Protein backbone atom coordinates (compact mmCIF):
# COMPACT_ATOMS: atom_id res chain seq x y z
CA UNK A 1 0.00 0.00 0.00
CA UNK A 2 0.96 3.66 -0.16
CA UNK A 3 0.45 6.56 2.23
CA UNK A 4 -1.21 9.82 1.11
CA UNK A 5 -0.45 9.21 -2.61
CA UNK A 6 -1.43 6.21 -4.76
CA UNK A 7 -1.59 5.13 -8.39
CA UNK A 8 -5.19 6.37 -8.45
CA UNK A 9 -4.28 9.93 -7.45
CA UNK A 10 -5.15 12.53 -10.09
CA UNK A 11 -2.63 15.35 -9.95
CA UNK A 12 -2.75 19.02 -10.93
CA UNK A 13 0.40 21.13 -11.23
CA UNK A 14 -0.01 24.74 -10.16
CA UNK A 15 2.60 26.67 -12.13
CA UNK A 16 3.04 23.99 -14.79
CA UNK A 17 3.76 26.61 -17.46
CA UNK A 18 6.81 27.92 -15.60
CA UNK A 19 10.28 26.48 -16.12
CA UNK A 20 10.45 24.53 -12.85
CA UNK A 21 6.84 23.40 -13.08
CA UNK A 22 7.31 22.15 -16.63
CA UNK A 23 10.59 20.37 -15.89
CA UNK A 24 9.25 18.50 -12.92
CA UNK A 25 5.93 17.77 -14.59
CA UNK A 26 7.89 15.84 -17.21
CA UNK A 27 9.74 13.94 -14.47
CA UNK A 28 6.54 13.13 -12.60
CA UNK A 29 4.91 11.86 -15.79
CA UNK A 30 7.93 9.64 -16.41
CA UNK A 31 7.47 8.23 -12.89
CA UNK A 32 3.93 7.16 -13.73
CA UNK A 33 2.08 10.01 -12.04
CA UNK A 34 -1.41 10.60 -13.43
CA UNK A 35 -1.08 14.34 -14.08
CA UNK A 36 -4.35 15.55 -15.55
CA UNK A 37 -3.75 19.29 -16.04
CA UNK A 38 -1.91 22.42 -15.07
CA UNK A 39 -3.21 25.59 -13.47
CA UNK A 40 -1.84 29.07 -14.21
CA UNK A 41 -3.91 32.23 -13.77
CA UNK A 42 -4.43 34.01 -17.08
CA UNK A 43 -3.42 31.01 -19.18
CA UNK A 44 -6.63 29.02 -19.15
CA UNK A 45 -7.40 27.36 -22.48
CA UNK A 46 -3.77 26.75 -23.35
CA UNK A 47 -2.11 23.33 -23.46
CA UNK A 48 1.45 22.07 -22.96
CA UNK A 49 3.00 19.12 -24.77
CA UNK A 50 5.05 16.57 -22.82
CA UNK A 51 6.08 14.05 -25.43
CA UNK A 52 2.99 12.01 -26.19
CA UNK A 53 0.97 13.78 -23.50
CA UNK A 54 -0.77 17.08 -24.14
CA UNK A 55 -1.99 18.56 -20.87
CA UNK A 56 -4.61 21.30 -20.67
CA UNK A 57 -4.05 24.45 -18.63
CA UNK A 58 -6.82 25.98 -16.56
CA UNK A 59 -6.97 29.48 -15.17
CA UNK A 60 -8.31 28.48 -11.76
CA UNK A 61 -8.20 25.48 -9.46
CA UNK A 62 -11.98 25.37 -9.27
CA UNK A 63 -12.24 24.94 -13.04
CA UNK A 64 -9.47 22.34 -13.10
CA UNK A 65 -10.96 20.21 -10.33
CA UNK A 66 -14.43 20.40 -11.85
CA UNK A 67 -13.16 19.33 -15.27
CA UNK A 68 -10.71 16.62 -14.22
CA UNK A 69 -11.77 15.31 -10.81
CA UNK A 70 -8.23 15.91 -9.53
CA UNK A 71 -7.56 15.23 -5.85
CA UNK A 72 -3.88 16.27 -5.56
CA UNK A 73 -2.10 19.53 -6.34
CA UNK A 74 1.64 20.21 -6.57
CA UNK A 75 2.60 23.86 -6.16
CA UNK A 76 5.49 25.32 -8.21
CA UNK A 77 4.87 29.05 -7.90
CA UNK A 78 7.05 31.93 -6.59
CA UNK A 79 6.96 32.57 -2.84
CA UNK A 80 4.84 35.72 -3.05
CA UNK A 81 2.07 33.81 -4.85
CA UNK A 82 2.22 30.62 -2.81
CA UNK A 83 -0.34 31.52 -0.15
CA UNK A 84 -2.92 32.38 -2.81
CA UNK A 85 -2.20 29.20 -4.75
CA UNK A 86 -2.52 26.95 -1.70
CA UNK A 87 -5.68 28.66 -0.48
CA UNK A 88 -7.18 28.23 -3.94
CA UNK A 89 -6.36 24.52 -3.81
CA UNK A 90 -7.96 24.23 -0.37
CA UNK A 91 -11.09 26.05 -1.54
CA UNK A 92 -11.28 23.74 -4.57
CA UNK A 93 -11.37 20.76 -2.21
CA UNK A 94 -8.27 18.81 -3.24
CA UNK A 95 -7.35 16.23 -0.64
CA UNK A 96 -3.58 16.76 -0.85
CA UNK A 97 -1.61 19.92 -1.63
CA UNK A 98 2.17 19.52 -1.94
CA UNK A 99 4.02 22.84 -1.66
CA UNK A 100 7.50 22.66 -3.18
CA UNK A 101 8.25 26.40 -3.06
CA UNK A 102 11.15 27.58 -0.88
CA UNK A 103 11.23 30.97 0.84
CA UNK A 104 7.53 31.26 1.62
CA UNK A 105 7.01 33.91 4.35
CA UNK A 106 6.23 32.17 7.64
CA UNK A 107 3.15 34.30 8.25
CA UNK A 108 1.78 33.16 4.88
CA UNK A 109 2.40 29.52 5.78
CA UNK A 110 0.68 29.98 9.14
CA UNK A 111 -2.39 31.33 7.38
CA UNK A 112 -2.74 28.64 4.72
CA UNK A 113 -1.98 25.81 7.15
CA UNK A 114 -4.64 27.19 9.51
CA UNK A 115 -7.06 27.46 6.60
CA UNK A 116 -6.43 23.84 5.63
CA UNK A 117 -6.96 22.70 9.21
CA UNK A 118 -10.19 24.68 9.46
CA UNK A 119 -11.48 23.26 6.18
CA UNK A 120 -10.63 19.73 7.27
CA UNK A 121 -10.49 18.44 3.70
CA UNK A 122 -6.92 19.18 2.54
CA UNK A 123 -3.61 17.82 3.77
CA UNK A 124 -0.77 20.25 3.10
CA UNK A 125 2.77 18.89 2.75
CA UNK A 126 5.53 21.50 2.88
CA UNK A 127 6.38 24.21 2.07
CA UNK A 128 10.07 24.02 1.16
CA UNK A 129 9.91 20.27 0.68
CA UNK A 130 10.74 17.71 -2.04
CA UNK A 131 7.23 16.26 -1.94
CA UNK A 132 6.44 12.59 -1.69
CA UNK A 133 6.69 9.42 -3.73
CA UNK A 134 5.04 6.03 -3.62
CA UNK A 135 7.53 4.11 -5.80
CA UNK A 136 5.98 2.35 -8.75
CA UNK A 137 2.73 4.21 -8.24
CA UNK A 138 3.00 7.98 -8.20
CA UNK A 139 5.28 10.92 -7.44
CA UNK A 140 4.21 14.42 -6.41
CA UNK A 141 7.17 16.77 -6.24
CA UNK A 142 10.86 16.58 -7.12
CA UNK A 143 12.02 13.28 -5.59
CA UNK A 144 13.88 11.22 -8.21
CA UNK A 145 11.86 8.15 -9.15
CA UNK A 146 14.78 6.00 -10.31
CA UNK A 147 16.78 5.78 -7.07
CA UNK A 148 14.67 3.24 -5.22
CA UNK A 149 11.95 0.63 -5.54
CA UNK A 150 8.59 -0.24 -4.04
CA UNK A 151 8.88 -2.05 -0.74
CA UNK A 152 8.08 -2.20 2.94
CA UNK A 153 9.77 0.83 4.54
CA UNK A 154 8.07 4.13 5.24
CA UNK A 155 10.24 7.25 5.33
CA UNK A 156 9.53 10.72 6.75
CA UNK A 157 12.16 13.42 6.52
CA UNK A 158 12.80 17.12 7.03
CA UNK A 159 15.68 17.03 4.55
CA UNK A 160 15.38 16.54 0.80
CA UNK A 161 18.91 15.34 0.10
CA UNK A 162 18.93 12.96 3.07
CA UNK A 163 15.62 11.58 1.85
CA UNK A 164 17.29 10.72 -1.44
CA UNK A 165 20.33 9.18 0.23
CA UNK A 166 18.34 6.86 2.51
CA UNK A 167 16.05 5.89 -0.37
CA UNK A 168 19.08 4.97 -2.46
CA UNK A 169 20.89 3.09 0.30
CA UNK A 170 17.80 1.00 1.03
CA UNK A 171 16.71 0.66 -2.59
CA UNK A 172 16.87 -3.13 -2.58
CA UNK A 173 14.34 -3.30 0.26
CA UNK A 174 12.23 -0.44 -1.06
CA UNK A 175 9.62 1.95 0.26
CA UNK A 176 5.87 2.09 0.59
CA UNK A 177 6.02 5.89 0.58
CA UNK A 178 8.72 8.47 1.24
CA UNK A 179 7.48 11.84 2.51
CA UNK A 180 9.61 14.97 2.60
CA UNK A 181 7.82 17.23 5.08
CA UNK A 182 10.10 20.26 4.72
CA UNK A 183 12.36 22.09 7.13
CA UNK A 184 10.59 25.42 7.66
CA UNK A 185 9.52 26.47 11.17
CA UNK A 186 5.86 25.93 10.22
CA UNK A 187 4.83 23.02 7.98
CA UNK A 188 1.55 21.42 7.05
CA UNK A 189 2.39 17.77 7.77
CA UNK A 190 4.60 16.73 10.69
CA UNK A 191 6.69 13.71 11.61
CA UNK A 192 3.80 12.62 13.84
CA UNK A 193 1.28 12.78 10.98
CA UNK A 194 3.48 10.53 8.85
CA UNK A 195 4.24 8.16 11.74
CA UNK A 196 0.51 7.76 12.35
CA UNK A 197 -0.09 6.96 8.69
CA UNK A 198 2.75 4.45 8.48
CA UNK A 199 1.66 2.76 11.69
CA UNK A 200 -1.82 2.32 10.21
CA UNK A 201 -0.55 0.99 6.87
CA UNK A 202 -0.47 -2.84 7.03
CA UNK A 203 2.18 -3.12 4.32
CA UNK A 204 4.65 -0.70 5.91
CA UNK A 205 6.78 -2.89 8.17
CA UNK A 206 9.34 -0.37 9.46
CA UNK A 207 9.93 3.37 9.50
CA UNK A 208 12.90 5.65 8.90
CA UNK A 209 12.64 9.12 10.43
CA UNK A 210 15.07 11.89 9.50
CA UNK A 211 15.25 15.01 11.62
CA UNK A 212 17.61 17.90 12.15
CA UNK A 213 18.60 20.50 14.71
CA UNK A 214 16.17 23.20 15.78
CA UNK A 215 12.75 23.15 17.40
CA UNK A 216 11.31 20.20 19.25
CA UNK A 217 9.61 18.22 16.48
CA UNK A 218 11.78 15.15 17.01
CA UNK A 219 11.21 15.16 20.78
CA UNK A 220 7.46 15.34 20.21
CA UNK A 221 7.76 12.53 17.67
CA UNK A 222 9.62 10.45 20.26
CA UNK A 223 6.77 10.91 22.74
CA UNK A 224 4.28 9.88 20.05
CA UNK A 225 6.32 6.80 19.14
CA UNK A 226 6.44 5.71 22.76
CA UNK A 227 2.63 5.83 23.04
CA UNK A 228 1.40 4.85 19.60
CA UNK A 229 4.00 3.20 17.32
CA UNK A 230 4.71 -0.52 17.59
CA UNK A 231 6.64 -0.87 14.33
CA UNK A 232 10.44 -0.60 14.39
CA UNK A 233 11.75 2.92 13.85
CA UNK A 234 15.28 4.04 13.07
CA UNK A 235 16.31 7.66 12.90
CA UNK A 236 19.00 10.07 11.83
CA UNK A 237 19.37 13.60 13.19
CA UNK A 238 21.39 16.01 11.09
CA UNK A 239 23.44 18.77 12.68
CA UNK A 240 25.71 17.36 15.39
CA UNK A 241 28.50 19.74 14.34
CA UNK A 242 26.33 22.85 13.85
CA UNK A 243 27.54 25.88 15.84
CA UNK A 244 25.11 27.24 18.41
CA UNK A 245 22.98 30.16 17.27
CA UNK A 246 23.64 29.67 13.55
CA UNK A 247 20.89 28.96 11.07
CA UNK A 248 21.97 25.91 9.07
CA UNK A 249 20.29 25.38 5.70
CA UNK A 250 16.61 25.24 6.59
CA UNK A 251 14.95 28.23 8.22
CA UNK A 252 13.89 26.00 11.11
CA UNK A 253 17.33 24.50 11.69
CA UNK A 254 18.68 26.76 14.41
CA UNK A 255 19.86 25.85 17.89
CA UNK A 256 19.08 28.25 20.72
CA UNK A 257 20.82 27.55 24.03
CA UNK A 258 20.33 23.93 25.02
CA UNK A 259 17.12 23.53 23.03
CA UNK A 260 16.99 21.83 19.65
CA UNK A 261 20.43 20.20 19.67
CA UNK A 262 21.07 17.00 17.77
CA UNK A 263 22.28 15.30 20.95
CA UNK A 264 19.07 16.15 22.83
CA UNK A 265 16.98 14.78 19.97
CA UNK A 266 19.09 11.62 19.78
CA UNK A 267 18.69 11.02 23.49
CA UNK A 268 14.92 11.55 23.38
CA UNK A 269 14.56 9.05 20.54
CA UNK A 270 16.84 6.43 22.06
CA UNK A 271 14.99 6.72 25.36
CA UNK A 272 11.84 5.35 23.67
CA UNK A 273 13.66 2.57 21.84
CA UNK A 274 14.41 4.24 18.50
CA UNK A 275 17.85 3.32 17.19
CA UNK A 276 19.65 6.44 15.95
CA UNK A 277 22.45 6.27 13.40
CA UNK A 278 25.50 8.53 13.57
CA UNK A 279 25.50 8.83 9.77
CA UNK A 280 22.92 8.18 7.05
CA UNK A 281 24.80 5.03 6.05
CA UNK A 282 24.78 3.70 9.60
CA UNK A 283 21.07 4.47 9.79
CA UNK A 284 20.52 2.35 6.70
CA UNK A 285 22.56 -0.48 8.23
CA UNK A 286 20.47 -0.33 11.40
CA UNK A 287 17.31 -0.70 9.32
CA UNK A 288 18.79 -3.68 7.48
CA UNK A 289 19.73 -5.33 10.76
CA UNK A 290 16.27 -4.83 12.21
CA UNK A 291 14.48 -6.20 9.16
CA UNK A 292 16.87 -9.15 9.07
CA UNK A 293 16.11 -9.88 12.71
CA UNK A 294 19.71 -9.34 13.80
CA UNK A 295 18.77 -6.66 16.35
CA UNK A 296 15.63 -5.46 18.05
CA UNK A 297 14.24 -2.00 17.38
CA UNK A 298 14.18 -1.15 21.07
CA UNK A 299 12.06 -1.57 24.14
CA UNK A 300 8.64 -0.87 22.63
CA UNK A 301 6.12 -3.74 22.16
What would you note in describing this structure?
By secondary structure, the protein is an alpha/beta fold. The chain folds into two domains: 10-125, 3-Layer(aba) Sandwich (Rossmann fold), CATH 3.40.50; 147-291, 3-Layer(aba) Sandwich (Rossmann fold). It is 34% helix and 23% strand. The protein has helices spanning 19-30, 61-68, 79-92, 106-119, 160-169, 191-200, 217-228, 262-271, 280-291; strands at residues 10-14, 34-39, 47-50, 53-58, 72-75, 96-99, 123-125, 131-134, 138-141, 150-157, 175-180, 206-212, 233-238, 275-277. The strands form two sheets. The chain has a seven-stranded mixed β-sheet, sandwiched between helices. The longest helix is centred in the first third of the chain and has 14 residues, at 79-92. The chain starts with 9 loop residues before the first strand and ends in a 10-residue tail after the last helix.
Secondary structure elements and pairings:
Elements: E1 10-14, H1 19-30, E2 34-39, E3 47-50, E4 53-58, H2 61-68, E5 72-75, H3 79-92, E6 96-99, H4 106-119, E7 123-125, E8 131-134, E9 138-141, E10 150-157, H5 160-169, E11 175-180, H6 191-200, E12 206-212, H7 217-228, E13 233-238, H8 262-271, E14 275-277, H9 280-291
Parallel strand pairs: 1-2, 1-5, 2-4, 5-6, 6-7, 10-11, 10-12, 12-13, 13-14
Antiparallel strand pairs: 3-4, 8-9, 8-11
Helix pairs in contact: 3-4, 5-9, 6-7, 7-8
Amino acid sequence: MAVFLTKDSKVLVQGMTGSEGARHTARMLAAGTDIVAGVTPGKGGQAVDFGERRLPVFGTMAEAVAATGADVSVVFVPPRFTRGAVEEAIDAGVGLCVVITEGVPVHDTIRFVARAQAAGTTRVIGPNCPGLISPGQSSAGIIPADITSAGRIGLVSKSGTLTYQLMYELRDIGFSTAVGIGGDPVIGTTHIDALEAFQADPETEAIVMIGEIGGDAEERAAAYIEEHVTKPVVAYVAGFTAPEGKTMGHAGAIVSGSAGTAQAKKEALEKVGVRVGKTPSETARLMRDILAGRVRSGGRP
